[in-house]
Amino acid sequence: MWWLLLFLACRPEAEPEWFGDPGPVADACPEPPPATTGAPLTVPIRVVLGEGVNPDEASWYLRWASSWWRRHGVTLVAAGRSESTDGAPILAGGEARTLRDVLAPVRRRLTDRSSTAPAAVDVVFLPALAHAGSPVRQWFERLAGLTVSDVLLQRLRDADPHAELLKAAVVEGPYVPTVFLGLDTLDALPNERSRFVLPHELGHALGLVHHLDDGNLMEVGFPRCEPRLLQAQRDALRVSVP
Ligand SMILES: [Zn+2]
Predict the structure, then answer these.
(1) What separation in Å is there between the alpha carbon of 19 and the centre of ligand 1?
(2) How far away, in angstroms, is 75 Cα from ligand 1 center?
(3) How does pLDDT run across 13-28, given as a tens digit for each residue?
(4) CA–centroid distance, residue 140 to ligand 1 (Å)
(5) DSSP summary character for residue 38
(6) Largest CA distance in the chain
(7) Distance separating alpha carbons of residues 210 and 237, to the nearest angstrom
(8) Gap from CA of 8 to ligand 1 centroid (Å)
(9) Ordered domains of the chain (ranges, CATH)
(10) Among 26, 50, 59, 125, which is least packed, fewest CB within 10 Å?
């Protein structure tokens, strides 16, 4: 009996199928537009789950992101097993006065690239992105995802409405490009929008800036219904694995 208990205690928990087939979804999206093509890219993703996040819920978003990017020749793979972190929001609350203060928890959560197993992108699922009293809740009506990427920061144009926010998050030293997702906002969106938020954020993580065309993956706001990716955007993707 003790042996059995010991075995059960030591048995590694099964991981959800992070990047498998998402299956059908009931909504009114039309047929997807033709996909762009390019040299195949593989993106190792480290999945990080905040305390209180349901792994099956996280895998739903990852499988849709994987499915969308696969149509564009980009394969998302797991960089090792998933990791866990505390579930605290990454945008500080009422005591934060400046944008840099608000983003201090973001900087603390970025993984030091020099000390970890290779991952091209960290995807961190949290119950919420912003503390209840965070000024960000006034600046943005709804914020479901936030991405910090060194390539993105280099490319940001001043005209981008989110440039100031991201530039204030600049950190010293090499860090893994990181997507933060807040499930409170994400889950409140209809499926045909919520499932394209992570593909959009991964676009940022791979260096894509916002795009003004309606229906583009990188449009400002929440993309919907099989968003398009232009060939120039596909050609501009940057995958960096140390
Ligand atoms: Zn964006």
Answers:
(1) 22
(2) 21
(3) 788 889 988 887 766 6
(4) 12
(5) -
(6) 66
(7) 13
(8) 43
(9) 37-232 (3.40.390.10)
(10) 26
